[in-house]
Write a sequence for this structure.
């Protein structure tokens, strides 16, 4: 019981710290039309990012899609605080219609957590991509408890450096979700080598709270 109470207190405290934008997540957002997941496979480098709570806890993120016998998985590796190598692996839920193809969800599994925290499901939306050079992806979660939401944006590139033309195309759809491109943070490539290389699975830092607050 005490453990459960401690988890709830930490959970509520996290909610107030993470959710900073008023109201619900942007609705009826135009995503990438006729999104082709097969062309989105393999490695993407995070070159710019935006976090609505302004926390900069990770750098040099690499997102990679791969296939396993039981489904398609997203591996998000990163350097936490410039010190440690971390990675988070989640299973993708594939939409059943072409109209929703860019409306992906990812579920992370943590077997050693309390039952309510074992499976954690988050939205993963593709705003735009040309598959070969750039991609713009975001996640948004809403807290009805305080009527605020959180957004994280990845500006991705197939290479560690994104050319100017691709950057302009990547940031063009950001107004659809109310994000000012001037607030994007460029990843610091000088901090891509962790000081302490501890290669272990960890919670995804770009998804801001552990469980959905509504059903």
């Amino acid at each position: 019981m005490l453990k459960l109470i401690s988890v709830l207190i930490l959970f509520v405290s996290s909610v107030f710290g993470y959710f900073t934008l008023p109201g619900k997540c942007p609705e009826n957002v135009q995503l990438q039309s006729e999104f082709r997941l097969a062309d989105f496979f393999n490695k993407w480098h995070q070159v710019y990012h935006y976090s609505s709570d302004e926390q900069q806890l990770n750098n040099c993120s690499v997102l990679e899609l791969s296939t396993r016998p039981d489904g398609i998985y997203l591996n998000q590796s990163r350097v936490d605080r410039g010190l440690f190598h971390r990675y988070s692996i989640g299973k993708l839920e594939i939409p059943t219609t072409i109209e929703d193809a860019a409306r992906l969800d990812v579920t992370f599994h943590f077997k050693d957590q309390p039952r309510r925290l074992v499976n954690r499901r988050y939205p993963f939306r593709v705003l735009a991509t040309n598959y070969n050079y750039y991609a713009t992806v975001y996640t948004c979660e809403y807290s009805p408890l305080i009527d605020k939401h959180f957004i994280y944006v990845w500006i991705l590139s197939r290479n560690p450096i994104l050319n100017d033309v691709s950057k302009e195309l990547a940031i063009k759809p950001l107004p659809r979700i109310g994000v000012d491109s001037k607030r994007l943070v460029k990843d610091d490539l000088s901090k891509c080598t962790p000081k302490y290389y501890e290669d272990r699975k960890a919670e995804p830092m770009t998804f801001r709270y552990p469980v959905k607050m509504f059903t």
